[in-house]
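Researcher: Here's the sequence for the chain we discussed earlier.
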Amino acid sequence: MKTLDRKLLRDLWSIRAQALTIALVIASGIGGFVGSLSTHDSLNEARSRYYAAARFADVFSYAKRVPDPVAARLAELPGVAEVDARVVQDAQIDLPGVAQPLSGRLIGADLAQLRQGLNRLDLRAGAWPAPGSHEVLVSEAFARARGLRPGATLHALLNGRRTRLVVTGIALSPEYVYAAATAGLADDRSFGVFWIDRERLAAAFDMTGTFNSVAIKLRPGASPGAVIEEVDRRLAVYGSRGAFGRDEHPSNRMLTQEIREQRTFGVVLPTVFLLVALFVLNVVLGRQVTTQRDQIASLKALGYENRQIVGHYLKLALLIAAGGILLGIGIGQWFGRYMTGMYTEFFRFPTFYHRTAPWIVLAGSVAFLAAAAAGAWQAVRALVALPAAEAMRPPSPAVYRPLLVERLPAGRRVGPRAKMIIRTLKRRPGRAALTTLGIASAVAILIGGTWWRDALDYLLDVQFNAVYAGDLYVGLVEPAGSAARHEFARLPGVLRAETSRSVPVRLRAAHLSHRTTLQSVAPDAQLRRLIDLDLRPVPLRAGGLLLTDRLADILEVRPGDRVRIEFLEGERREREVEVTGLVREMMGVSAYVDPETLARLSGEAELANSGALRIDAGQRDALFAELKRLPRVAGVFVKSAMLDYTRATMARNILIFTTVLTLFAAAIAVGVVYNSARIALAERSWELATLRVLGFTHRDVTVLLLGELALETAVAIPLGFVGGYYLSGLLVQMMSSEFVTIPLVIAPRTYAYAGLMMLAAGLVSAWIVQHRLSHADLIAVLKTRE
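Model: Thanks. This is the structure I predict for it:
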């Protein structure tokens, strides 16, 4: 073994504690990088694999009633490879033993198409329904949430008739990887998808020989836009709601957004870890090299070249980094498997497993090895440039001068120990600033990883208590007149009833357009209120259009601009209206008008297709029983049930996720704090030993050593609070989507948690250093080269 290699092993052993903390910092960064990006890659791969295997359609359209021969004419359009015409109806579902009315989407399709055609189903359990029967397949998410198995029975309100359905199997569909009744939060306990023989469903709704939903597969290279335009033209006379591409499909949009967010998360936080690891490595090696100044001089005097000495310290850095990388890959594999498992609760794939692409491990490893090499070079380059004779001499002693505070009258009350601490910080302000920055970075990362629970709590509270202030929300099969509100009000237990209408529209501003819903909100509405992120009511001017800020950004419009509204149902009118205001909502991309304006723009009477109810909880079961008998009710959503389901689903995941980020941040904190204290001990051991000989107590010298660190930590924690706020703001900007604007809300408990974690890390590090100081050999320390 070469001499320098033996020295390398001895050096590595002598700084084993520091090396371990640096390795933990690197492992945290690699773990976050590999775990997050491998989860992103796994989601992306699962989506691509499933869409290809299930032959997921490219274009979709819904209409009122389209004759079957039109499907053949659609198949002849340029670029169209295959057409699947179906009957789709939303209906109320009644499960035995469940008081709450549930919502279901029944899809009537040719059973052969379900097996081999577009959007083919993956049968998870049971058997396929028999042709012409009332047998159904049920979506796996709903079946699991409600404990349904093949052979179970349920009832559906089909066109006003209570119909008994038999579950023969459980299935997955590429159209409902994320199953939500609307483009919002999914509630697998309240909403299910059912597949039934098309002829049977068509007969129940008097639609024999017609269809109201079509899915289209395009030929390779075909233009979706051209096909969508032609499909709209062909189906306009049949009450089409406007064709749309896969990118606007609700399930695919949610999945795509989640994949995008996962990629963002996999880049931002690991980048911060990388920078902190580089900083820690640089500080440790730089100060380690400083303590070996005489050894480097001796090596140069013995004939070792600069490149050999630099190579020696590069090896030291790369060995530490390699250990951290290997540990981090293991952490990343575990973290990625956990994240992948978490997503199985939200997205349903036939096969969904965690995989780690080699490029992810390679990219992360190269980045951290490069950072380690850069840190080592930065640390050693100044010393190796010194001539051997110069390096053999101790560095010039520091010049201490009275501080400004000492010259003031109040400075006379400052004790000698405090003066020593302040003078030490003043002597090396750069080193103190870097240590403070490292600790602040750990605090910022901890806040950036744990504030999510505050944001989600705030989001759910605002959406479910301030915006949607009702207890039940009822969807109607067809729009009803003004009498619907009075009918709702007469139901048992209803304290207040409000109705509203939402209409599918396409908004256009110059060359920009967006498909969304136009919702009516009454001026006196209390159960569906327009409230911004700051909980301030937003007025809705009569005759004007109110847009969410995200929709205004998409269309590049502001109050005073005019927008063209294309109605996608009814007479498909086009009207221009002025944008009179914006509202910063947290969920959805919608446009709002008052009921009178909606009726005028659409050319119809004031209609409603949904109701919001505030109820007496004591009469809820009686109300549920009455709602189950109403043929016009398509579904009922109980706010408390959805809120409980959402909180229960998120609570465990947030807890584990927060714990992981806490461990990562703690590793950084220990890496920065412990290394700063440990190297300060190595650098100042002669001074401290001298003070002990002069009569200072062990407690005195401990205060002198750790007081500097305590001041740096005290300054770093508030700076970390500020950094954590801005880091969280960066994550909000990068991860907010058109579905959700994540509120930048950080509760005092999160700041307190981050601060206490850093104090705990500092106390542990101080105890370790104090222990080493108490066992120091004063005689050995006081020996000098001179």
